[in-house]
Amino acid sequence: MNSNNVSTVDLVKDDLRGAPKKEAFHQKCEANMFPFSFKRPEGIDIPQKAIVKIKQNDNESVNVQILNDGGDNNLHYHPNTDTVWFVLQGQIRFYGPGDKVIGEYGVHEGIIMPLGARYWFEKLGEEEAHLLQVAIFPKGQANNKRIDVSGKLKHQGTNMHIDGATGVVIKR
To answer: Beta-strand (E) ranges in 10-146?
Structure first.
């Protein structure tokens, strides 16, 4: 994942016959590797929810959602996104249709949410929760959508977005 946003899908579309083309393909892919880390941005009050943007390209995004009381969301699904959710801090409960509990996840536990699966989640307990979100867009980021199944919650406002590299608030 480099600043050129070269899509792995585009790279795979290339004709890979012959050793030089295969080697060039691998070098392009390897140039897009992106190590990352997460540290909660300091000095920012997060009353409900913030999304710390770590890295994004046309095929995937890596974020950490910071959840406090009221940071839960409503029943929804993504028709073009597979998502990995992984708890870094705190505890999260995921629900499906009819508020059926899918599971409760603590530190170093998570769930893979396939595209089209309906869900919502909430933070449990008093501790601020940190939830790693890795989203994969098989048809590209431009086709990424969220479809609400239930209405937005009264306290569900606009999420704060924070640049993970600089700690600067991008959007409130």
So the answer is: 49-56, 60-67, 76-77, 82-89, 91-95, 101-105, 110-113, 120-124, 129-136
pTM score above 0.90: no
- For strands 160-163 and 49-56, give the pairing: parallel
Q: What is the DSSP letter of 141?
A: G
Distance CA 75, CA 90 (A): 21
Strand order in the sheet with 91-95: 101-105, 91-95, 120-124
Radius of gyration from C-alpha coordinates of the chain: 18
pLDDT at 17 over 80: no
Looking only at the bridges linking them, the beta strands covering 60-67 and 169-171 are: unpaired
Whether the CB-CB separation of 143 and 79 falls below 8 Å is answered with no
97, pLDDT greater than 90: yes
- 136 with 60: CB under 8 angstroms? yes
pLDDT on residue 1 = 38
